[in-house]
Amino acid sequence: MRRSASSAISRSALSLLFLTSACTQPEQAGGADANATYHVADTADGFTLSLDYSRYQFIPETDALIASCKSALLSRAYEVAEERGRELEPINEQRIKVSTGRNGVTGITSCAASVPASYRRGS
């Protein structure tokens, strides 16, 4: 009887391990870009960059999501300017428009953000 009780405990512990490891997700190698899609709309003096960002979060952390969203948006804005051979005026973070949402069934938390970016004069 001792052996079967010990075996049942081992199976239960193993099952719990599998269940909890299925609820976690490793960081994507590409960082935020692996979870983001971008759209660039040209303007007279630069462009407006829009971002749709989503990721699975077992426990919703809106502040962390907003920080990741803003970081991805700003990084991509400077990359777009560099790809075009231009420099940007410094981007004021207060001009970033952000909205967030969460699908409680799937655990996907999402963020939509946009920011206008102006080219530095003479670049």
In short:
The chain is an alpha+beta fold. Helix content is 35%, strand content 30%.
Structure description:
It is a single chain. By secondary structure, this protein is α+β, with helices and mostly antiparallel strands. The protein is 35% helix and 30% strand. The protein has one domain: Threonyl-tRNA Synthetase, Chain A, domain 2, CATH 3.30.980. The chain has a four-stranded antiparallel β-sheet with strand order 1-2-4-3, with helices on one face. A hairpin with a 2-residue loop joins strand 1 and strand 2.
Run of helices and strands: HEEHEE
CATH topology (fold) name: Threonyl-tRNA Synthetase, Chain A, domain 2
**How big is the Rg?**
22 Å
Average per-residue pLDDT, rounded, comes to 79
Kindly give the count of domains. Answer: 1
Q: By helix and strand content, what is the structural category?
A: alpha+beta
Sketch the major β-sheet.
4 strands, antiparallel
Number of helices: 2
Distance between the termini: 81 Å
Blueprint (SSEs and pairs):
Blueprint: H1 2-22, E1 36-43, E2 46-56, H2 62-83, E3 97-103, E4 108-118
Antiparallel strand pairs: 1-2, 2-4, 3-4
